[in-house]
């Protein structure tokens, strides 16, 4: 038979239990959350609450225990509230330290595609490609075909090849160096009839081909915005008869690129190849020495001429790509 405890035994039983309860309360998380997010506590947060009207028989004893705890020597120790705030601050700092650092933004290199005739296929195009590739923020590709243009798609179809190259390379910028071979009849193509070079309808017919070619280059690809186009104006040449043709062709190129709005840039290269009086430069300083710029035909460039002109074009390309323009050496 279980006998009722005497008053003395009851008191002896109650006090250690209360001390244990106080110790357990002292180990609870100061924030009241029952632990950190990474290690949640299994105990309910408010397990000591009482229903309204429920007698609190142990309240005086708990109060006495709290009073005794407050009477202990706490000299040099922060108040409980300060301790709680410090613990919360340490917990937040620990959580912040556990969080991985924000990854740095990684920008893909700008992609440039150079297309065109002999100026793109050989010297100038190759030097410009190497110059751009030397920039860590740029990757450059090149597709050239000597003696090609828009007048003779039966010889080389730039309307098809331009589109293929753009779809394959997905460039941010397409640089076009083309047109020196286009001062001739426009051959029949996709149902069109031959258009004589010296006829009244040649400029309009050629402009239609320029517009179509630019549309292929700037067309959106795989739901991405289309590439920006930079058309390099044909350099001025010493031959009067060829220069008369190139003047007509330059104007049509500039008009076609202008129709693209912000997506088109026309760069006049002749400005880099003439003196203050407009006369063609025969030589210029390249790598600290005066060097010949043009080859014997007066149209193409020497290697020094290619390096000279590429160095002039390079900062314009960086600006078109939205990249910092490097200081010239």
TrEMBL record:
Q: Does the keyword S-adenosyl-L-methionine apply?
A: no
Q: Give the residue range of the signal peptide.
A: 1-19
State the Pfam families in the record: DUF459
- Ranges for region Disordered: 32-105
GO molecular function annotation: hydrolase activity, acting on ester bonds
What UniProt keywords are attached to this protein's entry?
Signal
Q: Which organism is it from?
A: Enhygromyxa salina
User: Where along the chain is composition biased (Low complexity)?
Assistant: 58-71
Q: Where is the composition biased (Acidic residues)?
A: 81-102
Q: What is this protein called?
A: DUF459 domain-containing protein
